[in-house]
Design brief:
Four copies of one chain form a homotetramer.
Chain A: E1 13-19, H1 25-35, E2 43-50, E3 53-60, H2 63-66, H3 69-72, E4 79-85, E5 100-104, E6 107-114, H4 120-129, H5 139-147, H6 158-168, E7 174-178, E8 183-187, E9 196-202, E10 205-211, H7 215-219, E11 223-227, E12 232-237, E13 240-245, E14 255-256, H8 257-263, E15 269-270, E16 273-274, H9 275-289, E17 297-300, H10 306-316, E18 324-326, H11 339-344, E19 350-352, H12 354-357, E20 361-366, H13 375-384, E21 389-394, H14 416-419, H15 422-429, E22 433-436, H16 439-448, E23 457-458, H17 460-463
Parallel strand pairs in A: 14-23, 17-20, 20-21, 21-22
Antiparallel strand pairs in A: 1-4, 1-10, 2-3, 2-4, 5-6, 6-7, 7-8, 8-12, 9-10, 9-11, 12-13, 15-16, 18-19
Helix pairs in contact in A: 4-5, 9-10, 9-16
Amino acid sequence: MRTLFDSRPHEECGVFAVHAAGADVARLTFFALYALQHRGQESAGIATCRDGVAHVHKGMGLVTQVFKEEHLRPLVGDRAIGHTRYSTTGASHLRNAQPYLLHTIHGPVGVAHNGNLTNATALRQELLAKGVGLTGESDTEVIAQLLAAPTAEREPDWEGRIARFMAVAEGAYALTILTPGALFAVRDPHGFRPLCLGEVRTEHGLGWAAASESSAFVTIGGRFLREVRPGEIVRIDANGITAHQAPVPPRPPSLCVFEYVYFARPDSRFEGQMVHQARQRLGRELAREAPCPEADLVIPVPDSSVAAAIGYARESGLPYNEGLMKNRYIGRTFIAPTDELRKSGVRLKFNAIDQNLAGKRVIMVDDSIVRGNTAGKIVALLREGGAKEVHVRVSSPPVRHPCFMGVDMATYDELIGHRLNVEQIRDHIGADSLAYLSHEGMMRAVTEGIRGADAGHCSACFTGVYPAARRGPPRSLP
Amino acid sequence: MRTLFDSRPHEECGVFAVHAAGADVARLTFFALYALQHRGQESAGIATCRDGVAHVHKGMGLVTQVFKEEHLRPLVGDRAIGHTRYSTTGASHLRNAQPYLLHTIHGPVGVAHNGNLTNATALRQELLAKGVGLTGESDTEVIAQLLAAPTAEREPDWEGRIARFMAVAEGAYALTILTPGALFAVRDPHGFRPLCLGEVRTEHGLGWAAASESSAFVTIGGRFLREVRPGEIVRIDANGITAHQAPVPPRPPSLCVFEYVYFARPDSRFEGQMVHQARQRLGRELAREAPCPEADLVIPVPDSSVAAAIGYARESGLPYNEGLMKNRYIGRTFIAPTDELRKSGVRLKFNAIDQNLAGKRVIMVDDSIVRGNTAGKIVALLREGGAKEVHVRVSSPPVRHPCFMGVDMATYDELIGHRLNVEQIRDHIGADSLAYLSHEGMMRAVTEGIRGADAGHCSACFTGVYPAARRGPPRSLP
Amino acid sequence: MRTLFDSRPHEECGVFAVHAAGADVARLTFFALYALQHRGQESAGIATCRDGVAHVHKGMGLVTQVFKEEHLRPLVGDRAIGHTRYSTTGASHLRNAQPYLLHTIHGPVGVAHNGNLTNATALRQELLAKGVGLTGESDTEVIAQLLAAPTAEREPDWEGRIARFMAVAEGAYALTILTPGALFAVRDPHGFRPLCLGEVRTEHGLGWAAASESSAFVTIGGRFLREVRPGEIVRIDANGITAHQAPVPPRPPSLCVFEYVYFARPDSRFEGQMVHQARQRLGRELAREAPCPEADLVIPVPDSSVAAAIGYARESGLPYNEGLMKNRYIGRTFIAPTDELRKSGVRLKFNAIDQNLAGKRVIMVDDSIVRGNTAGKIVALLREGGAKEVHVRVSSPPVRHPCFMGVDMATYDELIGHRLNVEQIRDHIGADSLAYLSHEGMMRAVTEGIRGADAGHCSACFTGVYPAARRGPPRSLP
Amino acid sequence: MRTLFDSRPHEECGVFAVHAAGADVARLTFFALYALQHRGQESAGIATCRDGVAHVHKGMGLVTQVFKEEHLRPLVGDRAIGHTRYSTTGASHLRNAQPYLLHTIHGPVGVAHNGNLTNATALRQELLAKGVGLTGESDTEVIAQLLAAPTAEREPDWEGRIARFMAVAEGAYALTILTPGALFAVRDPHGFRPLCLGEVRTEHGLGWAAASESSAFVTIGGRFLREVRPGEIVRIDANGITAHQAPVPPRPPSLCVFEYVYFARPDSRFEGQMVHQARQRLGRELAREAPCPEADLVIPVPDSSVAAAIGYARESGLPYNEGLMKNRYIGRTFIAPTDELRKSGVRLKFNAIDQNLAGKRVIMVDDSIVRGNTAGKIVALLREGGAKEVHVRVSSPPVRHPCFMGVDMATYDELIGHRLNVEQIRDHIGADSLAYLSHEGMMRAVTEGIRGADAGHCSACFTGVYPAARRGPPRSLP
């Protein structure tokens, strides 16, 4: 079963924005994107605005590959937005790189977007029918062209036009928007994708910023202030931060729980807690639900499972150690592996640390199993390394449903948790035992650390209950 | 005090060689270099030989940046050598990239080199005086030109010419050499730099390989056989591996102990043990020598100190956790940080994981302190993150003496352990307490796991006792 | 006096289109653009269409720099359009490179454009006001977005939509348009910029093509058929060529006379004659109007004045020779000249051939004087080379008025013919005598060779009589 | 019959050197190489020297492609040498690019070379036998390594070492040499390849230069002084120019006559005359020897035959005109032509100017016929263009013998003049008549304009009489 979303790029990305009068905002944005690099390695871009003229540089690759000093120099202005973009098959074109810049009747506007509009096809069709030609396939161009529409009576300004967009858009979007007079940070009414506000102190004084994750502020010497609320439109300009709720119907808060499980940096903060601590608790809950007292050792699948493995080890009282070495030199290789290497596959990414494993009954903690391509190979690697038994413990439930909100798991077919039950998966990956954390356990671990009121989560990939849809997944949209 | 070595590039590198008839040896070498990337990110290269004609491609940057499919295609033959090179100031030129290829009266020869010849200046001068012009500054060209010299009666072949080179060379060298008929793997009589042998099974049958570290074999689906012995000349050809000791005076085995402490991959093996286990024991010894029972938490400075911190935590009974997040997206950035960022410095590399630190008395385990530029900044980061106390424990002794054998710490001036005593360093880095592992403790941890006879180590950077020199460091050489 | 056109790119370009079922149309287009390279060296691009999906590659630089085999490979289909673009200050961005591709409600459309819309600002404003955001500054995007507008009753197809565009567009445009079902070649009702039709015979049979100049057909082994008529819409598809006049008011034919004087290749044909012959007659008329019987020698300013100089020499009976050597290695240099070189300026482009000049009274034939920056320097060069006298003869009248139709001479201020009279110009360039061809002489030379009826020309840059405007130059447009 | 030279690169190049204290010598060299670009388009390079340290940048492609501002910046010093290199099959590697820089016992030395050593293989073998390894295949490295040899009693300085090289070298060499204290310009005792001296006036005062052709001086605002004499060693330093004859046996002066016929720029000067005038006389002699009074028109094959065609037309009294348009946009294309285009071949380079040819009996003047691949295609093009008859007149004799001195015509097999007689060639190219200039006529034309004593020429490619060899061509060398 393939859905209409397959042919469109997944907007699983990092966004950023900063206003800091007098400072080198493009440079600050560069280093912030560097901190958000894990959210997308396909392309990167920065846009600035001065005196009503917008400037942009974007390119394919890591942010360090896309930018040299000569590219930062023309990016003048007191405010900037930036974007780093995930690679999904078939949509790897420079024309889909962001930020997307457009000349409009209201002046230039730049948009950086994280998420997926579930009604993008319909919105796109409406634009085309109105006579607006589109240059690429991305949701971001659709958003920018919607913002370019002429202003009705009751939308005299950018806030009004953004609200108008929010009234017709469905799905997930965390946006940073650049206009001649201000920056905007906007989050969809569900708050599917994260977005937060921070302040940056430069030699020219105080500035304000927005980012997908709070760790971007820390990297550039700033600090986290608060999250952008679901449905909120935040304006950032020389006067600082002003915010209000968009006049759209409120929806249940639905932060993507997969950000806690896997996607976000451990040192980022959502809902008043750090991701690392939530992950430790995921490990703790997993140890309570699925103990394995006869084991000798708890090891993580690096790097995303380290915190959960520490939590599991601590709760279980079993020793924690490393059993796998991960090759740190990430970045696309243009070289195809030999047939032998392709078969083993996982070797280019992981080596076993044999002496830590030899003769041991090992608990391997993994954060999630999506397609099931890797786990089995790692189990085999551990056995070759001498492990006597390998017990796999997963710090989230089986992924059984596609995500339509911006995470790259788009079809039922590709999800091993949809096709096989737990025992079949155990057999498939060759583990001595396999246990997943329950949905209740996961939510208990996540919510325990939350500070503040109305938190809420989307865990549709685990449950099939899609917050945005009345009747199941939105795959039947026109 | 600056020494004559400062103006020359430090040959702190990874080398590789493989013979596998019928296989795509350049591709195997590519992936092996990928596994050795931590030994040098400045440049990379691969050379092959077929029918007496040598081919080479090399370039600046990571191995994944230097090679595309079009570069591998012309690299035909049954054997290849590869090299990945560390960046040291002032010597970052393509002309110093390796392997170094030379047409000689004996046919083409290619050389990949790890280490530093301590009498390179004298050898260079001898070559120049004989009328041999040199194209660059590297030791490797000197080695290749020495091998190009005409053959005397008693050196009728490559083994003879290699032995002749070894008779005049002083210092550290681990070489892979490519000739029309064979590969050679050669290690200096002290065995300063590591070099080992492995086998690789391809669809075309069995092949043999040499590498700076055994993890390179594992990455390409092969396995470790044994180390090249100090002073040994190993020939690899269609008949497999044949080896003999070079007719040079034996020297005390002196494997660089810093490979255990910091430089090598944790999953590599030297002297019968894995580096990860040696590092755990370094942490264990450190916990015994320098306990800190009042602390709440043991954290590593990632990534090189993780094993030692696990060892320390286990021995001390204190909980282990992560307190620092390291930015994974390594690779040169061409963008200069802002002044503010430059001052904070360490932020671009590390963020604190505040909630793990808040209110805690933290033991920060670091593998070594060389220049002292980073440790103080990390201590400050941990305090900002909320740590109540920061106790620094270093799993090696103070580095007090330069290395002339290929590690990038070349002058007394730059070594904080030479300029300050332990209390002064503690004050400099702002720690609540600071303790180093003793030399005895370090050697106990390293030697405990050794399997096999005549091991021996160079720890001159800690002790000032240089194995190769009769009278102190070789800085008075002409 | 600067006009509103200054901030917009001048669309002085070469366009091409070819339909040839089964043939490698992108490759044919590449070589056709190579033949049209003199019409623009800033950027180049090719678009194709197959099964309703459009493909494009474009980039900055010469066509040989923009295209490698890997770029041609994805450009599949039975038809292609191509574009090569002139560089004007301030508009040198990839986003202005052509062809411009757009997804529309009618399917994908690609546009390649030569010329300038004189009401582009107004059309642009109308689009913005309708809510269409624009990504760049080029007229071409405006044209494409106008074609993307929804179709009214009476414009059921592309012909209809093109006619609708022609009804609102003013100024100069020669277009090639790519749609899923056909190619179109379109020329504005004045026929300001040239456009012609040809046929190409490939191993797969007969194909049809359109190009700015007929020499493009010859280069790819095809042949010239006829010119596209002013106001004509020509459809090219599998059935060959079908054409009709757009339902817009006819205008007086106004082919740019500067194409004859300077811009076009000598081997191209307009209005039934080759440019080289027209230029020879320009020289002949010049010799009749402005003889110089006391001179020894006629030399051209290479390359564009060669034909006129030959015509002048033949008519006057004076010997023809070369007196200037032009550096053939055209292409942008990224290196700034030294101050001395900057002052002499013309030396990097021309050297004098001294021995041909020494002691001679030289007639230097130039095709036109626009800004007057170069002529004076060449006169000085000839004197340094030994010329006793230098008599400048210009084979067109003084350029006194800006062009708004696509030639890069956009403001009164920059035109030396507007600021100075002939004697002042003679003094400025340091010639012994200076004479221009009269407007009558120019038109006599051009029209003498015309075959076929309704030819007509725009010579507004010489006369100030703008065919498109009722009341003088269109510089007062909003 | 293939010779040993086939596998070696042909050193048909442009060389340059300049000393100008305080000036930006690398920039001057850049523009000089730009003027020498016709002598080689494969690679380009510049080397400078300051304080005993040499700097170099070189790369593949046109000089404008190889150099950007960032490459000039590090090229500091008061003197520079430069090189531009011709492309011959199989030797197109960066490692063969020049200048070639070498560290020697005498300090750094840089060499730029035009020509071919006929005993390079033997010299190379001697170097290898002495134990000098060689990095590439070029003669230039051989020359540099010979200069690096230790100094005997009687060669205390660079002049001595250069003389020593000249004593063993055979064949053609025009060299510019860079040393820490001076530049040298050196020409072999035959003076096969051209080399001349000039002066350059910069804002910092007077400087001196050497170049393959005098037009390079003019381009950078300097002036020609004199030619370097065969066998002369010219030193250029802060004191200006000092020169002496090398203590080697004098040989008959043998400037390559093909420089006059085809290779050099028309505005360059050799032996007191400009090449353009010599070429006009070649045309004059040709008109006398091979008139064609029934013809209507004389046309050149552009660009190298223009001067000869002018001379022919003037002598014959027939009108001169252009009949072929040459595509000016030179530079490698990476795109292979279609089969149809490949067959026609010449179309991508030339188009016919039909209206000048229609119904005419045309004399097509070509400077030379080497391989015979092009002439026949041009004749066909002229006929298609309407020419009634095509009479080919060649302003040099048939090329019947290979060149071993640096021009790219290396084997007997490839020379149509060796395989066929004149009537057979006429038939092969499809001309109505064909006539070559006689050897006597050519020498008369060339020598008539010579100013100064001992001129002499190599015309071995026409006669088979090789100045350097006692017994025929040097193809039997070991």
